[in-house]
Amino acid sequence: MKKAKIILLSLTLIGYLAATGCFLYGEDTAFYIAVACFTVCMVAFFIVAMVEKHDTKAITDDASEDAIGEETKDSPDTSEDETPSGSYETQDPFSVESPAEAFHPEVDVEELQAELAEAEAEIRELKAELAEARASAERQLAEAAEEQKKSAQSKVGMLLPEGLKPRDELSTINIVDVAKSVADELREPALRAGLRVQVSATEGEIMVRADEGLLRVLFRNIVDNSIKYMNRQGNLVITLSTIGDDLFVVLKDNGEGLPEEETGHIFELNYQGSNRISGNGLGLAQAKAVVSYYGGNIYAKSVKGGGMGIYIQLPTL
Prior knowledge:
- This protein is α+β, with helices and mostly antiparallel strands and 317 residues long.
- It folds into 2 domains: 2-69 and 99-146, no CATH class; 167-315, Heat Shock Protein 90.
- Helices cover 56% and strands 14% of the residues.
- The chain has helices at residues 2-24, 28-74, 99-103, 109-159, 175-185, 187-192, 212-229, 260-263, 283-293, and strands at residues 172-174, 195-201, 207-209, 234-243, 246-253, 297-302, 308-315.
- The strands form 2 sheets. The chain has a 5-stranded mixed β-sheet.
- It is elongated, with a radius of gyration of 41 Å.
- The relative contact order is 0.08.
């Protein structure tokens, strides 16, 4: 019985820890399952405790009866005194308490119900505490996310020029022409570095609502990055295409590339990878700021020795 109590107590603790972990990590279904298991283990623990209590009492009573029997055996036997009729009295065997009655006394139902009610009250209190802790954690996460958003917006603002017009006040421009213009502008320094820049588009005109100056910053910073870090002769191909209302730009070179673990950091402000040469780490961070300003996405893929690919998605209108 003691082992059963230890096992149930362990399961209760595990259920509580599981419920707390599921609550903190937002696993709703697993949380309620863990709370249910915790509740069952708590109730079972109290039932086992009550049964053990009553079994102990029964064993104690039985031991007392055995002791009284031994004392009676050692004392003179007066149960066989002769009756006035000359016969001896014998004990009625059916008057002896049965073994079942001796070892299984009647359970105090009211006491057990009171203990169960107390356990249920503790469980309700625990649920309320868990709910409060969950609400507090959600508030803290929301506040942290808001702070992170404000910080990101602040960094983006620092990397962009002042006085930008709202997007709905801008006219549409052909982004293919902007990409070709930047490629022509950087053709000479690219050739000196052994890099040939090519622009390819699925259509002659891809119209976007954006500031031309910002788009030139976007293309110039990425092309300039390839010029610096190619470290060998090769090509940089700029491909533009559309799917629905989205514009996709891919800038892929066949240079040295970066280790995969460094690639995810290249758009961070002031980041310089293991192949750093010169500069202040602002170029690609500013390119990401331009993309974010227009509600787009940008990411990079690279492996050491396998070149660098930068992928951009922007809304066209």
